[in-house]
Design goal:
The protein is an all-alpha fold and 162 residues long. The protein is 70% helix and 0% strand.
C-alpha cells in the first residue's frame, strides 16, 4: 500500500491544526496516542464484536469504515510527528482469529509503542491496524477513498472553528 499521498494530506491537515490552534513546537504525541485509543474504542463499539450480551447487529459498513479511517488519521499523524513515514510492510502485522482478539492486540501494541516510541513497534502497530481493516472487509482502495473524504471533512471543520 502506498501511504505517501496520505502522509502528505495528513501533514497539510496537521500543519493547519497546529497553526490555527497555536500548537507549533508542542509535543502532541501523547494526545495523539490517546486519540487513537479513543477512536479504536469507537470503532470496536460500531462493530459490536465484543457485545456478547446483545443481539443488535453491527453498524452499516460505511459507518464502520468512517470510524476505521479516523484511526488511520491518527496513525498517520503519529508517524509524521516522529518521522516514521515509510510504507507499512503488511507482513509485519498480526492477524488474529477474531475481531475481538484483533482489537485487543492493537490496544496492546499501542501501549507497547507508547513506552518505546520507536519505528519498529510503530510499523507493527500500523500493519496490525491494516489487518483489522482487511478483517472488517475493507480493500485498500476503499480505505484510501474514505480517508480522502474524511480529510476534506476535517479541513472543512477547521475552517468552521471545530
Amino acid at each position: 500500500m502506498e501511504l505517501k499521498k496520505l502522509y502528505t494530506m495528513q501533514l497539510e491537515l496537521d500543519s493547519k491544526i497546529e497553526k490555527q490552534h497555536g500548537l507549533k513546537n508542542q509535543d502532541l504525541v501523547e494526545q495523539k496516542i490517546l486519540a487513537l485509543l479513543v477512536e479504536l474504542g469507537e470503532l470496536a463499539n460500531e462493530t459490536r464484536c465484543f457485545k456478547f450480551w446483545s443481539v443488535k447487529p453491527a453498524s452499516e459498513q460505511r459507518v464502520i469504515l468512517e470510524e476505521y479511517v479516523d484511526g488511520v488519521h491518527f496513525l498517520l499523524s503519529i508517524g509524521l510527528t516522529l518521522g516514521y513515514t515509510s510504507d507499512i510492510p503488511r507482513e509485519v502485522g498480526t492477524k488474529t482469529e477474531s475481531l475481538t482478539e484483533q482489537f485487543l492486540s492493537i490496544y496492546e501494541l499501542v501501549t507497547l509503542f507508547k513506552e518505546e516510541k520507536q519505528e519498529e513497534p510503530f510499523l507493527v502497530l500500523f500493519a496490525t491496524f491494516m489487518e483489522l481493516g482487511a478483517m472488517l472487509g475493507f480493500t485498500w482502495d476503499e480505505v484510501e477513498n474514505a480517508y480522502m473524504t474524511k480529510n476534506k471533512v476535517n479541513h472543512d471543520r477547521q475552517q468552521q472553528g471545530y
